[in-house]
Structure formats: structure tokens, C-alpha cells
Amino acid sequence: MADEKRLSARRKHTLKGCMLLVATNLLDAESHVKVGEREKFLEDKVPPLEVPYSKDELMELCQKLHEQIDISEEERYSIEFKLNMVLNEVRDLNIKIVDLRGKFKRPRLKKVRMSADAMLKALLGSKHTVNMDLRANLKQVKKEVKEEDKQLRDVGDWRKNIEDKSDRKKMFDS
């Protein structure tokens, strides 16, 4: 079954050849389209050059072209100057950022075992003494034992009470 799905070497070779032929045709067609687009663009943007036959007309044409070149060079120079100013400003700001980062090195934090009292003392300073021992701040209540509760506790063992009651029953029976 695996042999049936495999292509023979000859079939693979012919398929590769066909694919290459189609790809070259597509590339040729694409290059012809690009050449046509370029010619159309140049016709639209660049007017046809009318070469005058007299020397004076040629000189006048050269002067016009030089003026246009000067204008475009001035624009290019001004844009380039502005770009360089912006790039220098960005570079200076980056240097300032790096300098600020370098000044404030972050120390490595270490784990510190500290009691709550010591931590508050470190934060608030030695003026404030705060006691974090919460159990010391709790009110202590003394337990008063009431007389009634004492009598109830002294009733004693329930078996003795039952024996006392059984003696009474015997008294009535006899």
C-alpha cells in the first residue's frame, strides 16, 4: 500500500520540470508587467524632453534645470539637517537615561529576620516606641466564682443522690 502512494523517480522528475516551466513563465509575465508600469509612470511624471536647436535655448533650458536642482537640493539639505538634529536629540536623551540608571544602582535585597517591634522601630525611628506584643495589650479578667455555681458543683456524685433516694423509698415501703 505504501508502494502504491509513492511516485516513481521519472514521475517526480517530470513534475519538477513542469513546475519550473510554469514558474519561469510566471516570472517572465511579471517582469513584462513591471516594465510596462515603469514606462507608464515615467511618461506621467517626467514630461518629454524637447531639445531646442539653438544655443540660447539650450542655455535657458540648462538654467531652468539648475534652478530646479538647487530647489530640490535645498529641500533635501533642510530635511537632512532636521533629521540630524532629531537624531542628536534622541542620542543625548538616551545618554541621559543611561546616566540616570547608572547613578542609582539598586542594591540586592537580603532576607532579614526581624521582629515586628524591631521593624517598626527601624521605620518610625527611636522616638516612637510601639509595642507589638498584642497579648500584653489584652485586658486580663479575673474569674469570680459565684456562690450558686459553687453549690451546684458541690452537689457531688449522682450515684450518692440515687442511693439517698432509694433509702427514702424503703422508708415508705415499710
Automatic annotation (TrEMBL):
Troponin I is the inhibitory subunit of troponin, the thin filament regulatory complex which confers calcium-sensitivity to striated muscle actomyosin ATPase activity. Transmembrane segments: none annotated. Belongs to the troponin I family. GO terms for molecular function: actin binding. It comes from Cottoperca gobio (Frogmouth). It comes from the Eukaryota. It holds the Pfam family Troponin. Keywords: Actin-binding, Muscle protein. The keyword DNA damage does not apply. One of its GO terms (biological process) is cardiac muscle contraction. GO terms for cellular component: troponin complex. This is Troponin I, fast skeletal muscle-like. The keyword Ion transport does not apply.
